[in-house]
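The data are set out underneath:

___
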Amino acid sequence: MASYSPKYFKMSVASEGVLLVEINRPPANAFSEAAWEELGATFQKIGEDGSVRVVVLASTNPRIWSGGIDLASFATFTNDSTGPSDPARHALYSKRYVTRFQAAISAIENCLHPVIAAVNGAAPGLSIDIMTAADIRYASSDARFSIRETVLGMAADIGTLARFPKVVGNESLARELALTGRNFTAEEALSIGLVSKIVPGTRDDVIKAALETAKQIAKNSPIAVAGTKHLMLHARDHSVQENLDYTATWNAAMLMGPDTSIAYKGTRKGGPPPVFPPLEKLSGKL
């Protein structure tokens, strides 16, 4: 795998093809501008690394997954006196800032490889933006969540309002949680579909469960896995027929690779398990 040296994230290879990325900004893993910029840049680099097959996004903090936005950083932006002075130009300045922020979080969704969020402890505000950009979400039994932005006097603008209603499939409940800003537990998160599994225990337990799932995914064809993620995102944002047409075109190209043949041979009784070429050996520099 390529070398990474981010300041606010701890990186380690958990197993072959599985990269563990842990939010690491003490004391509360809150995101300053530098931290979210680094998040976006890191996931862009990960997506270009063909030796990675799955990413687990976790926290180094046993009590907090992420404290959300760093309020000191947010106050600096809202009180910024270096921007344009008139309202119209300042609005364009602010929009550019928010758009950059959105793109940094969307880098998780746009990453070529699937991302599993292993959430423990407190996960308010920006945590929901980050979680809903991931492909799979697990929670430890001590996890607790909230869409906190209305409590802070603003509408969530980094991805929660776009993704959360689609994830949970319940507009009424999505609006209740977004409008009230109330806390909800791991059990409620599971019941509404925000997470697909509650892991009894705390941080270490949910990371272990996420890594086990990541290992299962990493055994599969990286072409098939990357294609499945891409096509499911396309399906979310397009009609059924548009996705069927797009998928037919996609697979017309992807099925020309060796992975389907390798997978078929690997299913033969008594045969060795399939071993798929890493992405960089198929396409050179990604």
Remarks:
- The chain has twelve helices and eleven strands.
- Residues 281-286 have pLDDT under 50 and may be disordered.
